[in-house]
Amino acid sequence: MQATAKQLISDELRRRFQKANNVLVLTGAGVSAESGVPTFRGGGHTAVWKGMPFEVISSAGMLERDLPAVWEWFNYRRGLLAALQPNPAHEAIARWQDRFDRFTLVTQNIDGLHQAAGSRGVIELHGSIWRARCVRCRETENVREMKVNDGAQACLACASPMRPDVVLFGEMLPLGAFEQAAGKAESCDLCFVVGTSAVVYPAAAIPEIARAAGAYVVEVNPERTPLSDLCDEVLMGKAGEILLLLG
Ligand code: BJW
Ligand code: ZN
After folding, report:
1. Which tens digit of pLDDT belongs to each residue from 65-82?
2. How far is Cα 3 from Cα 169, in angstroms, rounded to an integer?
3. Ligand 1 pocket test: which of 201, 228, 243 has the largest number of ligand atoms within 8 Å of its C-beta?
């Protein structure tokens, strides 16, 4: 383990990690891979549900055409996620929160595993699988206790249908979430990009904003991404192993 740590983590990154006082971490599905959560694109497979690629079933168009099918897909995934636990990458990121003067965690994940590991104030760019939202009045409801076979429920406030409170393709991000994350990216001095293929926008713009504002940007991923060339360092490997090497 020591030899790996020496090879992977440069003296420059160690120095910056020791001295940083404003750190931002952007995570994607890869940070949860070691917990058993399937990624969307990693590993050369595209997630398919009943013959539909996830870009189709997780889309604004499908929600309009077939809300029950969308619920079925998210209920199925909620059932899978309920049994899963945070992994050492989530735990390392949760520890970092208390280590730096200022710390921001921005995630594209909807699985809630960062919060389960103890992270606070997480900016969830793509919502949460554990909430439902009214299609009309936007009232939200916790669905953690909902049985996985239950279908769409009616809003308690206005009786309109509820939908999963996640950001589907072609939908806007939650009001202010990107702006808040972008503001933090502009002022951070060290930015980690962990386990994302960095192809979905506007999330993938966060490290670009950090880099343009002068931050040192470090990618953690077993594969290269469209962002790799922009990064100051690319640490190739699994998040659960690499983040531990930093502390
Ligand atoms: C490991 C690992 C280990 C494995 N350790 N790493 C410009 C051009 C064309 C289109 C667009 C554009 N700008 C915006 C768009 C549209 C679209 C978009 O970006 N499309 C691109 C694909 C081209 N964006 C949107 O629609 C967004 N909304 C928007 O832009 O609103 C404005 C607007 C509205 C209307 C019209 C136009 C504009 C919303 C995007 C919402 C994304 N939603 C999803 C689904 C959520 C619900 C669900 O779960 O079903 O979010 S898509 C899916 O991708 C999910 C993820 O959060 C997101 C990102 O994926 P992520 O996290 O990067 O995962 P993977 O699987 O891609 O990658 C995993 C990585 O981990 C890999 O690199 C592995 O190597 C790595 N890995 N094991 C570390 N152990
Ligand atoms: Zn309502």
Report:
1. 999 999 999 999 999 999
2. 42
3. 201
Distance CA 129, CA 110 (A): 5
Rounded CA-CA distance 41/2 in Å is 31
Place of tokens 């959560």: 37
The reported pTM is: 0.95
- Ranges in the chain, pLDDT < 50: 1-3
Q: Give residue 229's pLDDT.
A: 98
Tell me how far apart the alpha carbons of residues 54 and 44 are, in angstroms, rounded to a whole number.
14
Ligand that comes closest to the CA of residue 137:
2
- Atom 12 of ligand 1, residue of closest alpha carbon: 201
Using CA atoms, how far residue 193 sits from 5, 133, 153, 223, 243, in Å, is 19, 29, 36, 12, 11
Residue listed under structure tokens 């790799």: 228
In sequence order, the β-bridge partners of residue 26 are 106, 193
Ligand with the closest atom to the CA of 157 = 2
Task: Compute the 3-state secondary structure of the chain and give helix, strand, coil in percent, each to the nearest 5.
Answer: 40, 20, 40
Q: What angle do CA 40, 83, 96 make, to 5 degrees?
A: 70
* Residue whose structure tokens are 């020496």: 6
Phi and psi at 62, nearest 5°, equal: -65, -35
